[in-house]
Write a structure and sequence with these properties.
Largest sheet: 4 strands, parallel
Helix content: 25-40%
Shape: globular
CATH class: Alpha Beta
Number of helices: 3
Order of helices and strands: EHEHEHE
CATH architecture: 3-Layer(aba) Sandwich
Distance between the termini: 34 Å
Amino acid sequence: MTRNTPFGPKGWTPDRIGSLVGKTYLITGANSGAGFQATRILLSKGADVVMLNRNPTRSEAAIAALQEEFGPAANVSHIRMDLAELACVRSAAAEVLEKVPQIDALI
């Protein structure tokens, strides 16, 4: 029996994502785990990614790894945001508004 999913009979895979050139994604927790993998997939499709992480050192290391994989032209940046500190969230939101002209999705 074929199982249909909301994504069609073949399910969802990153291969089904088309070009994301011109799209901007903000991702929290993007320096490791699922957030890092989402960043990799989006960058591989040409998207711009802004990482929202609390640790600048780990963020810079993640950016270096991504630029090693996708080249120095990979459009990935970091804004410090610690979700446990409301003042930090407000500061990050203000920086996003100042630096990011378009947001297509927040992950």
